[in-house]
Amino acid sequence: MGKVSVIMPVFNSATTLHNSVLSVLSQSYPDFELLIVDDGSDDNSYELALSLAEQDKRIRCFRLPCNSGAAVARNKAIAMVSGRFIAFLDADDLWLPDKLEKQVEFMLSNHAPISFSSYYKIDGEDNNIGFVGVPERVSYQDLLKTCYIGCLTAMYDTHHFGKVLMPEVRKRQDYALWLTLLKHTDYAYGISQPLAKYRIHKGSVSYNKFSAARHTWRVYRECEKLPVPVAAYYFTHYALRGVLRKYAPAFARLTGVMH
User: How many other C-beta atoms are found inside a 10 Å radius of the C-beta of residue 50?
Assistant: First the structure.
């Protein structure tokens, strides 16, 4: 069907790395390689990755000489992949066991060059704290308004795009990549079934809404080169959707009580 190359950047992730790797090794779809790139960790993440690689020949480990950011780590791996499909998983997130099987089958059946899925949110103790659904498809313009694509669920087909690297910015580089890919196809296609678990923790970009907003603006201006009025238009959509996502559930509960 097509080999999948899984990209996993690692930085001081010794406490979560094993479970994240195990969620890849436990996939029902066996035709994959896992490229782990240690981004200058100062804990024992790299040694742990090496020990895991000794147990499964599908794992390949690399190490950057100093901390350079997730984009640099991911790009090092992308340059060396051998699979048709490229997927991403951070070292603190998890995949459900049929993630690769479901997604590869979906992409081949629907001739989808890039896909993504719904996912669960979990806390530091693996407790389920939320759910993120996705639309059936999104265009470049749709994605400028809000990033529907969770990096841990994304997969793109190199037969369509070739190997496309992430812009080497410190944050939101995955968002910038999806925008780049969507300039070369009509849509990214969403899978409604949740296929992954995204860990929320203090310090993550998604946790710090102000930081996420600032880096989103930088993607508009520095990566996409949008003029200020155009960037402001899409940023307004991004901000309003963020407010709605935060307060709509509470509003729905309130109106339900009132009725």
Answer: 15
Total-model pTM: 0.90
Nearest 5°: CA angle at 207, between 92 and 224?
95
Phi, psi of 116 (to 5 degrees): -155, 170
Distances, alpha carbon 32 to alpha carbons 4, 20, 59, 142, 236, in Å: 5, 15, 9, 31, 40
Locate tokens 């992409």: which residue?
A: 107
Question: Which CATH architecture describes the domain 4-258?
Answer: Alpha-Beta Complex (3.90)
pLDDT tens-digit readout, 127-151: 999 999 999 999 999 999 999 999 9
Name the packing angle between helices 228-258 and 209-218 (round to 10°): 150
**Cβ–Cβ under 8 Å, residues 79 and 163:** yes
What are the residue boundaries of the structural domains of the chain, listed by start?
Answer: 4-258
